[in-house]
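Entry:
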Amino acid sequence: MKVAIIGANGQLGSDLVTAFSAAGDTVRGLTHEDIEISILDSVSRALEGLRPDLVVNTAAMHHVENCEREPEKALAINAIGARNLALASRSIEGILMHLSTDYVFDGGKGEPYVEDDNPRPLNAYGISKLAGEHFVRATTERHFVVRTSGLYGKNPCRAKGGLNFIELMLKLARERGEVKVVDSEFVTPTSTAELAQQLVRLSRSKAYGLYHATAEGSCSWFEFAREIFALTGTEVRLQAAAPSEFPAKVPRPRYSVLENQALKREGVNMFTSWQQGLQGYLSGRTEPSIAPSSA
């Protein structure tokens, strides 16, 4: 299968290139220099030239504060960009796999969200990503819309300063010896390496539609940090921060745990627990270089 991965130099995109290549697919990685997803002509030219069987879109404007400051830009990339990819994929009779987010929910449910739950985003980022989902689902029948949560991977996330949560915690522990982390926001930390393997598996299916794809289980950011320090043997004074200690600049869901109901229904769920995913990441970890922010 010929696969085009958009955002191939990103945190998830780089693992997708590896995973699809290892599965025997012919992979072409596209970056911002190759394609501007907010411009239909750019998308059409890029995909018409390659004519892939599958297009995987990881490109997004996902810095939450920047999306709130520039909602028009967020919509252009996250919503119109998704529509452009859906139109171009349909034109070449390809399949579109589009990555979305847990931030389409408001966190009020208090138990894991399934695909049938009604979205209610709290901020411009979530709104723009939900709009992108609707564009994809309404434009092309041959689609996978995949929501995920709390991603971390070996490749630096440039839009977030170059360090994922794990590396940030270990850096702060080395430099300060004391770390405070909120204990009131719950997510499912998910390894990009595991997510990439899951997306390869899903791509072999014809069961198009909406999917949740995260590691199993959930934790607060404080509990995630505690597990990181325990598994690495890091000596640090870890404290739970009061909810008011790190006031959010933008409203965020306090509970955005996803349940992989559709993956399990189709018999293709591959995820292990978030603890096992963390162990796998740490076992292959090397000291990261800090990439400059692209924000």
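Confidence is low (pLDDT under 50) at residues 288-295.
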